Give the backbone structure.
Amino acid sequence: MKSLVDELLESYADCGGINHLTGVNLPSKMAVAALTQDLLHIIFPGFISEHQVSMADLPRETALQLDSLQKRLEIEIAKSLDMLPIAGQNAGSVTLDFLRKLPDVRGLIQTDVEAAYQGDPAAANKEEVVLAYPGVEAVAVFRMAHVLYELGIAFLPRMMTEWAHSRTGIDLHPGAEIGSHFFIDHGTGVVIGGTAKIGNRVRLYQGVGLVARSLAKQVERDEQGHALGGKRHPTVGDDVTIYANSTIVGGDTVIGDRTIIGGNVWLNRSIPPDSVALYEAQQLSIHPRQRNNGDWVI
Amino acid sequence: MKSLVDELLESYADCGGINHLTGVNLPSKMAVAALTQDLLHIIFPGFISEHQVSMADLPRETALQLDSLQKRLEIEIAKSLDMLPIAGQNAGSVTLDFLRKLPDVRGLIQTDVEAAYQGDPAAANKEEVVLAYPGVEAVAVFRMAHVLYELGIAFLPRMMTEWAHSRTGIDLHPGAEIGSHFFIDHGTGVVIGGTAKIGNRVRLYQGVGLVARSLAKQVERDEQGHALGGKRHPTVGDDVTIYANSTIVGGDTVIGDRTIIGGNVWLNRSIPPDSVALYEAQQLSIHPRQRNNGDWVI
Amino acid sequence: MKSLVDELLESYADCGGINHLTGVNLPSKMAVAALTQDLLHIIFPGFISEHQVSMADLPRETALQLDSLQKRLEIEIAKSLDMLPIAGQNAGSVTLDFLRKLPDVRGLIQTDVEAAYQGDPAAANKEEVVLAYPGVEAVAVFRMAHVLYELGIAFLPRMMTEWAHSRTGIDLHPGAEIGSHFFIDHGTGVVIGGTAKIGNRVRLYQGVGLVARSLAKQVERDEQGHALGGKRHPTVGDDVTIYANSTIVGGDTVIGDRTIIGGNVWLNRSIPPDSVALYEAQQLSIHPRQRNNGDWVI
């Protein structure tokens, strides 16, 4: 077995960029998963735990949970700051800043649950929305990660949203700006890029992407690793609905307020407010099935 | 730390609808996940357990598994009935009614495995279909959840199909009616709404949605939380094939028997039987790549 | 409870094809999941483990990991060979052949990480790419599974890529041939069929499928279970970019070198090199929103 080990060790020496063997520690995927799950407990009290939490026990339980969260968050935030320091900041103060924003974040998430319940005939009550809607979970994790992103923390927010992406198929970059009453239904395949801006009361269905043009050349970055060149992802106004699998491309593309985008649309230019944009059924070619050499032709 | 706890407790008092701190217990996500996994063991004996089950041990093993399942199912069903009672029903009798349907459910699932094996050249044998096809797992969980849905149980069936959704990217509402020999290939992004009707021998590819029109107004519901207004999702006939990423919208949309729908279609009207409906390649704009200010233009 | 058990046992006797109660053992899903996770540790040393690995400890840690991996891999490979033997091969020699290829596989994966970093403005550094990009994980698992597939091993490679599919929404059949510097961004819903061929420096976005025509008749297979009839999935040249949700169909479809395919395209014929193929925005029907009987019409 010795030579196999040696070959691998040589490969570790030769292939840079996919090893992380020296220098500071990286945030741990497993620790971030556990942290994010516990943050969801704090956001939705009584929904996730195995045992029933009584009103009498709530203050003590909440204090215990926060205490544990604070310690573990500080460790992962410290790792991010070791990799990419922020002048005048330390892990303890950033952790506190983040936790102090949680009540505001809960206020926003309440509007998201409300939007899901009001908008979806399949939701029998709000309990079902919190228990069973992947979009609600993904958006709740995004809203917390966005706070960390705004505080300048690297790695951790993206690892949080990727944890939710793996569970829900919904890929929300923590840099996006998203208004209140946001509802993603079904959600698998949704992608929202890091410079997208979304208004209030927007509804997206599965497979909708707010994405960048890919210009097939090497990206230029500043010292923090942020890409130069500004906004790459679309802007979506208030009260917009975008149906399943539509792809909106480009940083200067704007979908106006109250506009509806049909499903399966590829859109690389702006659409005015109060519009409907879709492919008409008559553009489809519809003809009888026929055989060619015994096979069906498509 | 005290003030942080107080702020959160105030938020729990202020933000209704995303707490569940009083009243009856909700079904537990973790318990439902374990239950659904164990139900799959019962459906596919010998496929999932770590150790080999011999024919001699099978009766004893099956009895032990059923006994454990029955007790745990009854607990979760009781929670659903506490939230939304059904006149004349108790958790014990509903649990038995459900378990007695499992042999019939296995008969249907066998037709699904058969359809995957007969229809997919990538399947080398039926063992591979059961071991590795996410569509088979998602449909098996759906068929069990549908039985609970028909028995009137809230929460639990949707939590079961959402467990499968998280694992497979396939979102099947337990209310849908789906015929035999149903095959979802690859599957990520598939969505089938709760009032959809699907015939026998239907094949869907990844990203296909049978979804509702979204009317952007507040939903009206009855006392059980069910939406008023009837069928919102399409009807699909026998022997239909729908290719990847197509979205079929609306409760009065009907795809006729033996029809083929191409991929990436947005369809909000009916298609007759024995048809092919698709976008022709000549509708694409195809031109040489060109540069504009050094960037590729799309 | 007795009669319930008896009914299930009768169902096991009646419904063949979804039981596995006799004969040889199948590979275990749980064992394959743990193995694949541990292989990723070996590929990306220092990225996944909870504790920091020092350069001094690396040889000893690597030797221990390889020793454990070798034993467990041999067990699962032996199960595959029991089901579908290969003349002149035993599990021990196949396991060694596979492990000896890992340094080469790492070399290829390094090009994939490089392509993600160079091509995606959202990536701040290569550490973020390895820690948070699901496409990198799915392609790394695919590259290892492809080695096992080439060695003729059944079940195991597909179970490895399906483990990654469940985590990432990216479904890469281990039989596909994929060049260097391969980048799948976001990735949910991507499907690449087992006879697809992909060149170097190709970039795919979420929801892109390289898939087969479905001919709605029974598949013919050889003794090993492989479908007769040859190549069923497309060929993609070097330096091609395919935007989100596009579906490319058929074994004789070729996308030429340096060509760009827009999003949401359904394509069942070849596109020449150095082209752009997309739907123009003017093909969309864009009109003011209007109401019909109080509902918005789409």
User: Anything to note?
Assistant: The two ends of chain A are 53 Å apart (CA to CA). The mean pLDDT of chain A is 90. The longest helix of chain A spans residues 58-83. Helices of chain A lie at 2-14, 29-43, 58-83, 91-100, 102-119, 126-132, 134-150, 156-168.
